[in-house]
C-alpha cells in the first residue's frame, strides 16, 4: 500500500563500516561514521533511512553488523538495510537488531524465490527489492538489471524484474540508475517512471539528485512515492527541511 505522503530518505552507503559516496558506483570517498550521520538525519526530520553495505556482495560476505548495531539505537525512524543478504537467516539477524526493513538486490536476481521467502517470513512491508539499472537499448524497456555492485550486467529487463518482484511479494521497489548515480544531474526519470507505472508498490527514486527541483521531478514526472538522497544531503547542499518545504510548496504532501 502506498503511503499518503512523499518521503525524503537519506541513503547511507557504507564500505568497511564507514559512510562513503561515489559517482556512477566508483570514485568512492570516505565521509565519516554512518551512526553519526544517521542520528543527524533523524534529528533533521528525515522520514526514513537506508543503509547499504555496498561491497558486501562483491566481497562475498554478509552485511557488516557493527555499523548497523551502532546506528539503530540512535534512530527513531525506520531503517532499511541492504547488502549481502542472501537468506532468511541473514535478514533475521538484521531485523533482530531493530532494523525495520531489509533490501535485497543481487541475491534476489540470482534466486528470485528469496523475495517470497522473506515476504512469507517477515511480511511484504519489511522487504524492499533494490534494482540497479543501466540504459541498454537491447532490453524491451531500455533498462537492464545490473548486479554485484553495478559491475555485472544480467541481460534482464528492469521493468520486467520489478513486476516479477512485486508478484513474488516485495513491499517496495528501490531502483537506482547507475548512469545518474552521484552525478547530481537529476534522477533517471524515464526509468523511474517506467517502473513506477508498471507496479502498484511504493517506488523510491534513487541516483542523481542535485537540486530541489530534481526531487519534485522524481515525484511529478517519475511518479515516485519517495526520494532517496545522498550527495545533496551529505555535502550540506540542502537540509532535509529545505527539501520538504520545497516539495510542500510544489503541492506534495510531506511530513514537516
Distance between the termini: 22 Å
Q: Helix content range of the residues, please? A: 25-40%
CATH class: Alpha Beta
Please provide the ordered H/E string of secondary-structure elements: EEEHEHEHEHHEEEHEHEHEHH
Beta fraction: 25-35%
Low-confidence stretches: none
Strand pairing plus helix content: what structural class? alpha/beta
Annotation, overall tally of beta strands: 12
- Integer-rounded radius of gyration: 16 Å
In total, the number of domains comes to 1
Q: For this entry, what is the oligomeric state of its chains?
A: single chain
Largest sheet: 12 strands, mixed
In CATH terms, the superfamily is Aldolase class I
Describe the fold and architecture:
This protein has 256 residues and is an alpha/beta fold. The chain has a single domain, classed as TIM Barrel (Alpha-Beta Barrel), CATH 3.20.20.70. Helix content is 33%, strand content 26%. It contains ten helices and twelve strands. It has helices spanning 34-44, 65-71, 88-95, 106-110, 113-122, 158-168, 189-198, 212-220, 231-234, 240-249, and strands spanning 7-15, 18-23, 26-32, 49-53, 79-82, 101-104, 127-135, 143-147, 152-157, 172-177, 204-205, 226-229. Strands 1, 2, 3, 4, 5, 6, 7, 8, 9, 10, 11 and 12 form a twelve-stranded mixed beta sheet that branches. Strand 8 and strand 9 (152-157) form a beta hairpin. Helix 1 runs parallel beside helix 2. The longest helix is centred in the first third of the chain and has 11 residues, at 34-44. The chain is globular.
Amino acid at each position: 500500500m502506498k503511503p499518503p505522503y512523499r518521503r525524503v530518505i537519506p541513503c547511507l552507503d557504507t564500505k568497511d563500516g564507514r559512510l562513503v559516496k561515489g559517482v556512477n558506483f566508483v570514485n568512492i570517498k570516505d565521509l565519516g561514521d554512518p551512526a553519526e550521520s544517521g542520528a543527524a538525519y533523524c534529528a533533521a526530520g528525515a522520514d526514513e533511512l537506508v543503509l547499504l553495505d555496498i561491497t558486501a556482495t562483491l566481497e562475498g560476505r554478509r552485511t557488516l553488523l557493527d555499523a548497523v548495531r551502532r546506528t539503530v539505537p540512535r534512530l527513531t525512524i525506520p531503517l532499511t538495510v541492504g547488502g549481502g543478504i542472501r537468506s532468511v537467516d541473514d535478514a533475521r539477524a538484521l531485523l533482530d537488531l531493530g532494523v525495520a526493513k531489509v533490501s535485497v538486490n543481487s541475491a534476489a536476481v540470482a534466486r528470485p524465490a528469496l523475495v517470497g521467502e522473506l515476504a512469507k517470513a517477515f511480511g511484504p512491508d519489511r522487504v524492499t527489492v533494490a534494482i540497479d539499472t543501466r540504459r541498454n537499448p537491447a532490453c524491451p524497456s531500455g533498462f537492464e538489471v545490473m548486479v554485484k555492485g553495478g559491475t555485472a550486467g544480467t541481460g534482464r529487463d528492469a521493468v520486467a524484474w520489478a513486476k516479477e518482484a512485486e508478484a513474488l511479494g516485495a513491499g517496495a521497489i528501490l531502483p537506482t540508475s547507475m548512469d545518474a548515480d552521484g552525478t547530481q544531474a537529476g534522477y533517471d526519470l524515464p526509468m523511474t517512471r517506467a517502473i513506477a507505472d508498471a507496479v502498484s508498490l511504493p517506488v523510491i527514486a534513487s541516483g542523481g539528485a542535485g537540486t530541489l527541483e530534481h526531487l519534485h521531478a522524481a515525484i511529478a514526472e517519475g511518479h515516485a512515492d519517495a526520494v532517496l538522497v545522498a550527495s545533496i544531503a551529505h555535502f550540506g547542499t540542502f537540509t532535509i527541511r529545505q527539501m520538504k518545504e520545497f516539495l510542500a510548496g510544489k503541492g506534495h504532501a510531506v511530513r514537516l
